[in-house]
Amino acid sequence: MVEAFSWSAGTCGASARVKSPAIPRILAQRIAALLLVSSPVFALSAQKPLPASAMTAQEAEPASVVPANALYIPHRVAKGKSFTDFEAMLQQLSRADAVFLGEQHDDRGTHALQLAVLEGLARRDVKVVLSLEMFERDVQPALDAYLAGTMPESAFLADSRPWPNYGPDYRPLVELAKARGWPVIASNVPRNMASMVSRGGLAALDTLSAERLPWVAAERDCDADSRYAKKFGRTMADMGGHGDAAMPADMIGRFYEAQCIKDETMAESVARALEAHPDAVVVHVAGGFHVEEGLGTVERVKQRVADKSRARRVSQLPVVVFVPTADMDAVRASEKRHLGDWVVYPIR
Length: 348
Known about the structure:
- This protein has one domain (3-346): Rossmann fold.
- It is α/β, with parallel strands linked by helices.
- Strand 4 (73-79) and strand 5 form a beta hairpin.
- The protein is built from eleven helices and eleven strands.
- The two termini are 17 Å apart.
- The strands form two sheets. Strands 1, 4, 5, 6, 7, 8, 9, 10 and 11 form a nine-stranded mixed β-sheet that branches. It has a two-stranded antiparallel ribbon with strand order 2-3.
- The protein has helices at 25-35, 52-55, 86-93, 108-123, 140-148, 153-160, 166-180, 191-200, 227-239, 249-276, 297-305; strands at 3-5, 12-15, 41-44, 73-79, 82-84, 98-103, 128-136, 184-188, 281-287, 319-322, 342-346.
């Protein structure tokens, strides 16, 4: 079954840069694309909502929740070994405590369907707290001021370090939240702090000032023998193939710790949102690797909400992973069912 929605988030392709003389340039680019240790760099095609770079220089147009040049986005939804439909997925997500949407950052169909998830929850009168990897904790005051209408969008964007593809891809999510009065959580650790860890390991966080310390998770369990760490290591090793020099083990370890700090901080942000908003579904949007197989951010949220003395009982934390595909007919529901509770295949 193929469902379609008339939303689109624009076309973009991704690349990223990180400087390291110890490894080949191509491998460094691949690592940075995965970790986002440094700022992601995207090539964009602009839509009517102005891209972030333009909106910082001039006042943005009145917010439009749905992009003006919306496109038809066919997709399939898999649950387990079978296909289901988007509305059936939404009905179950509406009863969740928190929902994790795992994305490829540069896929327009994925962003369109993420907006459709939020819109579907809104149609069901579900209160939502939107949590975003794409904003970092230290910019929460600017985000709150913009949502409250006390800061113009141009000032908000100037103060919040939005990703370069914010305008076409993430702005519609924020604008829907703003229109509905939903809180939006800047959930991630500041990227310069993650970079500190990638260079100096977890010990680098011991140098943080009292002012900056709240921007990273208080609990930081980065066990190098965990299933997630081993998956991360295999991914790094795979990137070192095809003629590239192998990455040193100590470098992989530091990069894992930087990844772990992101997951711990996002998980703490989600857990706090669950506690502060007992009547809402927390929807967390992040790169797929952070949430696939219920690992990364998801397992760390589960650790934080396992305490039975907490005010809110949390049990339903479904994962939705978006896997762009160029050939809808080739999709097999059973092949990637391990990635999440639902796997959504937008046409690329």
